[in-house]
Amino acid sequence: MPDWVAHLALGFLAGKAAKVRDISLVLAGSLIPDLGRILEFLPLSPRDIMALAIPFHSIAVSALIAGALASLVFRKADLKYAFSLLMSGAALHLALDAMMMYTIGGVVPLAPISYARFSAELFPSESFVPAMVLSLAVACYLAYKKFKKA
């Protein structure tokens, strides 16, 4: 599974490419599907944790969390804007995870409606290739911006 570095790098690059004003919302959204990892700190068996964490990697649960975050933090005028940026980050996260080969069979984008799994199987789940490529792309972008100003 791509680590948070890859998810944040992809969110950063997508936000910069789209010229998003509040890129921090895209970055926060790119971590929403991994909020289920909080369950690892509870005294549950690994099997129970996996069963409870799977729905977090779905569009519906990500939308519920993004909506809750947006409504708690932003005023009504900015609600749609904040929700769309949070969901953009979550969608990028799910897309990146869907590219990985998983021993458990992939991501479940339509949970809790359907627990059918999807995986494009482009990279092994323990591969750091996406994180390295995306981190290099962010470094190149930042270097370009710095030297462009000079």
Short description:
The protein has 150 residues and is mainly alpha-helical.
Describe this structure in words.
It is a single chain. The chain is mainly alpha-helical and 150 residues long. The chain has 6 helices and 2 strands. It has helices at 4-17, 23-29, 46-53, 59-73, 79-98, 129-149, and strands at 100-101, 123-124. Helix 1 crosses helix 6 and helix 4 runs antiparallel to helix 5 (79-98). The model has no long low-confidence stretch (mean pLDDT 86).
Assembly status? single chain
Please count the beta strands (DSSP E, at least 2 residues each). Answer: 2
The assigned structural class equals mainly alpha
Q: Globular, elongated, flat, extended or rod-shaped: what is the shape?
A: globular
Please describe the biggest sheet, giving its number of strands, its sense, and whether it closes into a barrel. Answer: 2 strands, parallel
Strand order across the largest sheet? 1-2
**Total tally of structural domains:** 1
What fraction, in percent, of the residue positions are helical? Answer: 55-70%
Uncertain parts: none
β-strand amount: under 5%
Helical stretch tally: 6
Q: Quote the distance from N terminus to C terminus.
A: 38 Å
**Rg:** 16 Å
Q: Overall pLDDT, averaged?
A: 86
Order of helices and strands: HHHHHEEH
